[in-house]
Amino acid sequence: MTDIYVYVHGWQTPPATAQRRATALLTRALDLRAAHPDRYPQLTRGYRPAVVVVRWPSSSLPSLGGYRRIRDRAHAMSAAGRGNAPHVLAHLLGYLDAQRCDPTAPPVLANRDGQYLHLVGHSFGGRFLCEAVQWAATPDAPRVLGWSTPALPGRPFTVDSMLIFQMAAPRDAFDRIFPSLFPSGAKSGAPLRGPLVLTHSRWDRATGFWHLRAEGSSGIGHTGAGAAPVPQFHTRLLPVHEPYRPSTLDHRLVNVDASARFRGGTRTRLAPAGAHSDFDHPESAHLLLSLAALSR
Predict the structure, then answer these.
(1) How many alpha carbons lie under 13 Å from residue 278 in its C-beta half-sphere?
(2) Largest CB tally within 10 Å, which of 49, 57, 63, 108?
(3) pLDDT tens-place string over residues 153-211
(4) Is omega for the bond preceding 37 within 30 degrees of 0, making it cis?
């Protein structure tokens, strides 16, 4: 195993579907690398991923009331001082980090077996991941997490890449909800070594139509991140034959316009959530695989 993925699903995703989507995404990545190894030269030493799927009750009626219900549930599960989802995820990430041996080839933060840790979220699942990683930056984070231990003060817990498809959160979430995720002033920020990559599509009705009515503005999954404490880079979802350069992904926060691909069929576009869950494409696997390659 070379790469560990932690996947958290979003709105209207039954447990079996979450497992299937996560597995399909990694299967596409494996097939893509096998068919075109020259496009990912950093992975010549191997790419053997494993995925941990975190599942939570996200089903509701496909309506404004249903969207608000799951939004409120996600908030209750992840809000500081109220919810335990970030703590559970943080303990999971800390456990996975503890299983990774000390890196032997700095500055690449992998262990002697070449393991990397990547986070993948969809919709409200992105909120849980951001909360969990941000929690590591707080002074009272328990030592059990393994993010900063007395024995290894120079080796804080690190996430090598973070990819969130169609995030269900306000566009100013990184200023208002996740203020400790990125470095700011004297704050060092959360242990997120690699980029935070966010896809968005104008065909996403869940974070467009429903988010607009529930929150008063469109969400990240529809329009991309707005105000943020770090500079942002904007690009588009690339076809599988076009490589992602380091200059495209090597940024703290990357907005990826996937409107040309995340469109859904005619029936999907007319559905309440639109193309909110329409990310099971080779182009998504290409982005996932490129992040893994550039983490080396």
Answers:
(1) 28
(2) 49
(3) 443 457 889 999 999 999 999 999 888 888 777 677 777 888 999 999 999 998 998 78
(4) no
The C-alpha angle 211, 216, 220, rounded to 5 degrees, equals 45
Residues 46, 48: Cα–Cα separation, whole Å: 6
Write the single-letter amino acid at 73.
Answer: R
